[in-house]
Predict the structure.
Amino acid sequence: MTITSFSYFTMLLAGVIIYYIMPRAGQWIVLLTLSILFYCVAATPYTLLYLGISTLTAWGVTNWLEQFRQKNKSAETLGFCRIFVMAVIGINILLWFILKGSQFFIIGYNLFGRLFTDIGTIEPVKLVAALGMGYYTLQIIGYILDCYWETARPQKNILKLFLFTAFFPQLVTGPISRYNQLNSLFERHKFSYLNITHGAQRILWGVFKKLVLAERVGIIVNGIWSDLATYDGLYVWVALLLYPIQMYSDFSGCMDIVIGSAELFDIKLAENFNNPFFSKSSQEFWQRWHITLGTWAKDYVLFPILKSKLIISLGKKLKKKYGKKTGKFLSTAIGMFALWMVMGVWHGAPKYVIGVSLWYWIILMLGEFAAPFFSEFVVKLNFRIKSFSWELFQMVRTYLIYAVGAVFFRAEGIKAAIAFLESAFISFKKENWNPWIFFDESILNLGVTYLDLNIIIFSIACLLLVGILREKYGYARNWLDQQTIVFRWFIWMALFSITLIYGKYGDGYNAAEFIYQGF
């Protein structure tokens, strides 16, 4: 079961009806039941045990921590508690590492064996990981640390904590929620027409992005990637530039369905996207793309590292030796390196360390280093940085930077990613740089029709229009709510009809899995 399948929407409809019929004190039990049911249908049922282990360890250590602090209020208490907190966090990381991150150990072991010893190599062992393991593991770690830092109170009811871990809409692809933001799961909710309409509208917009746009763009991208010997030159650039659109419409479409599903139950989930392709810098891009992962990494990785005694001491030495600005830059670079390594490793394979960690760490550090020189350059030339042309250039530049890094997402491995980039920049057939290839029927050999191409252009235009409205009104629907009822219904019915007629549903009305579901 995927969250675009008929069975999912049937379950969702039945769940909403039961939820509001049920006495409000038991509404959270309905959500828990739906979450377990969804998991057992959408994933390998026995892997639910992994969610249980994470929940049990978090529940045990946080409640023990609260009781221990009440009885022991000395200064030594904090150090004693830290050992147990770190041990439980270590258990959750180890469980994730065994099931999702073992590639790093295997590659390191084999490389060490080739270079220094003759111990042979080991082959990857395929283990079944829990659905959404990367997302709920970060949630649990964040919850434990919040309780340790006393910014959240421990949940006494282990079943409620399990609901926080396994809440079914966000289990597939996030967002990565904080406990204090999601404790509305356990509150009592009245039926609201506004929640139902807004939730349904958000789901419809997400299904449109996934089934109408992402699936069609995916046909072109996959066709080029599957035969780079034939399709290089301009074709590669088409794949390079279209894949970010596929990934965005796929991932953000999933988020719309997830957030809309939760909104039907009057549960507000954190936003995960905010017009990322309107970003004028890579730093801004990561404040708008996969927002909850970025904020999690800042709050639980970057800030603790920068506030640690080791980094503070190192920063003082660097400032004394190289000057205040350079010393601050170097100490910040160390913290940022740790943050981006966590982001790359979290995705579960070495190729992401290249395409996420190293690529963006280098880009951001170069930007930070060059900022003073650029400011001086702007002043001397009286450059108009607020002009539309310059801002458009910045957005295009940011898009291209992301597109290059995204190659490592799409590729099977690091070698495949490098080969793809070589076919774009170095080795290619001269005839495939002829722009007329897009005006003959060769583009149709990839598996699309002219109708598909027109629908892609129309859908991208819709995304652009909605993005502009969101920049101005917060949400496009805020603008739409100000229009007449006839116009509003026309827009929503038109969107529904387009999605119904032109959606790529797949076999059995079950679309392909979401790109980020694998994490």
Summary: The chain has 21 helices and no strands.
